[in-house]
Amino acid sequence: MITDTEGIILRQFKTVNGRTMLVMFSRKLGKISVATNMTGGGKNRSALSAKPFTYGKYELYKGRELYDLNSGRVIESYYGIGDDLDRFSAASYCLELTDRILMEEDPQPRLFGELTECLRAIENSRGNEKTLTIAYIVKALDHTGTMPELDHCASCGKDMTGLRPAGFSVGDGGIICGNCCDDKVKTNEGSLIYTVNFDIINILKYFKNEPFSRFEKIRLDDRLSEELMKILKSYMAYHLDVKDLKSEFMTF
Fold first, then answer.
1. Under 8 Å CB-to-CB from 143, ≥6 apart: which residues?
2. Could you write out the DSSP letters of every residue in 175-191?
3. pTM
4. Radius of gyration of the chain from Cα atoms?
5. Which residues have CB under 8 Å from 72's CB, separation 6+?
6. CA angle 243-247-251, nearest 5°?
7. What order do you get walking across the sheet with 167-169 strand by strand?
8. Cβ within 8 Å of residue 236, ≥6 positions away
9. Are 72 and 5 a contacting pair, CB within 8 Å?
10. b/e map 154-184, b = 16+ CB within 10 Å
11. Tens digit of pLDDT per residue, the chain (252 long)?
């Protein structure tokens, strides 16, 4: 069966028999593995379409066990990302995170659109790469149905509208009220509770609700970036088993 789809190349690797495999985030098919004879090392348009940081249109042949790449055409390349270490590190983190959180052949067209906008924003960024990365993490959690609870106490369900949360409980999956926080501290369940303020909660809600184009000129201060990433990394490690990303050590 032959099909065509838009896709973003997340990574490329060699198999034991010497074939080149692409891990592609496809708009139509979700994350898929694609075998190809193109290495991405050439300079023609087809070879360029097999490189990471490429958004392209691909014709695929579905065999019994995997997809084969018949042809590829570049729609948009984000090669400018490679000209700067901070941009490269941030974009690499976003691709690796996407690879880790997506299930095979589970289409996520909304997240696909967010990733193209994220890569475009990172390519044009000027010192706000960490902010864009945090924004993409929030979008990824939201679109895959794993967003932390930010409006109600994640432990007892109390409506927290207009109220100051006592903390963010990684184990419960979101903000918690004062009573629940006190109970967890008394019972030694507070090891994964972070102190948060309205700034952090409002930033998470803003990144969740606003289109990615709004974030291109925003830069969080370093303190907020560090606090947000500490919470998000702990949350993803606990709930999604996403930890020890190779690109993480270059980005944060």
1. 108, 110, 111, 114
2. EE-HHHHHHHHHTT-GG
3. 0.91
4. 20
5. 38, 46, 49, 50, 56, 57, 58, 59
6. 105
7. 174-176, 167-169, 193-194
8. 101, 137, 141, 242, 243
9. no
10. bbeebebeeeebbbbbbbbbbbbbeebbeeb
11. 889 999 999 998 887 777 788 999 999 999 999 998 765 555 555 567 888 889 999 999 988 778 999 999 999 888 789 889 999 999 999 999 999 999 999 999 999 999 999 999 999 998 999 999 999 999 999 999 999 999 999 999 999 998 899 999 999 999 999 999 988 777 766 678 998 888 999 999 999 999 999 999 999 999 999 999 999 999 999 999 998 888 876 666
Task: Work out whether the CA dihedral 240, 242, 171, 156 comes out positive or negative.
Answer: negative
The torsion region of residue 149 among left (phi > 0), alpha (psi -120 to 50) and beta comes to: beta
Among candidates 119, 111, 113, 126, which has minimal Cα distance to 92? 119
Token output for 200: 């952090």
Domains and CATH numbers, the chain: 2-77 (2.40.50.140), 84-252 (1.20.1440.120)
Supply 59's token pair: 């014709």
